[in-house]
Amino acid sequence: TQLLKTKTTAYSLWPPHHIFTSNFAKFDTNMMISRILRTILTNTPTRTQAFLSSTAESLKHTPLYDFHQHHVGKMVPFAGYSMPVQYKLSISDSVQQTRNCVSLFDVSHMLQFIVTGPNAIDFMERVVVGDIHGLSLGQSTLSLITNEKGGIIDDCIVNKTKEGYIYVVSNAGNAEKDSKHLMEQLELFSSKGAFIEFQSSRSLLALQGPKMPIVIQAGLCDNLGKLYFMNSVYTSLFGIDGCRISRCGYTGEDGVEISVPSERVVELAEKLLSQPIPGGGRVELAGLGARDTLRLEAGLCLYGNDIGEEISPVEAGLTWCIGKRRRKEGGFIGADFILPQIPGKTEKIRVGLTSTGAPARAGTKVLNPEGDEVGEVTSGGPSPTLKKNIAMAYIPRSLSKVATSLSLQIRKNVVPATITKTPFTPTGYYTKPVK
User: Fold this and answer.
1) 192 confidence band (pLDDT: 50, 70, 90)
2) Does the predicted TM-score (pTM) go above 0.85?
3) What is the Cα–Cα distance from 411 to 358, expressed in whole angstroms?
């Protein structure tokens, strides 16, 4: 404990997959602690953005903290909060539970805010790369907050609500940085007429997996079948008013994220857990360990590992986040750096890798067929779903063709790896049928 206290003062820690994506069937708490310590001792401050707090006393709690304790969640420091890494299921079993049934996650540490006013959309289009004007009412998009040099300050979900305001969710580890940047840009915003309200009195739950619709529809008057992927509705759920249900998530599965008044989040969580599922199965609690593995299998980026302020959207393979109109008009911060890169004018790019032998972790060197170092893994670990090792890395664009053979330097061993299309696992998103 004392080592944790002293070391975490100096280091902003860990890429979570160093700890969470384990290849043992049953979770070993002592092994987790040893991995935390090893990561603290071997990682530099530039390796992560998921900040471990300096002492246990300084950690913040979500409104579900006592709920986690009651359900015997294994709590770890994450992004300044005490958060559950795992419950009774092993991480591998929790991943399979989410892929095949449904799991409930507490993501209340995430930053939620709304932007209001007659120029709210214009302001958002200044700070993110997405086409917010082009969204339908109730529709969301994954977008990126960029800096003057085209780097990524954060990734976020932006929703153009039917209620007339913009609803945004961004990363917990970047909450202070994002808030400061947004308020600075608001001061500089020439049109004015935009206002930011941080939603500190609201919590956020994520219910993810193919059986999610059965659970949610039981407490919903609206027809969930009409709510497609990346759309949201403000409604009542299990008699709890003021819930915003967004059909999205960080797992690659069909799922929802539910923004709910904090004073009723425990009530909602308990109701979701108690819902029967016809044909067997039940809602299980899941923690950060399973969430990190699920997002890696889905090929989704983790801020501070796979994306950051030195990486552009084009290098990250996220050009699709830049709306077609925005590519022509620009107008967002960093556009002068980013837009010229779109025709393929970047030296490096993010790719997926599959490999044999020991799993690659963040920082693993990528080698070309001649044995020369050409890149570095940013996320990696064993995939419980695929039963193979997966990773993401930045390598030269000239080597990025799918099926290209490379190698990974894992400690003293060199193991074969293959460029693989992401997502690694098929997605289960509930999309609107194409007419």
Assistant:
1) confident
2) yes
3) 9
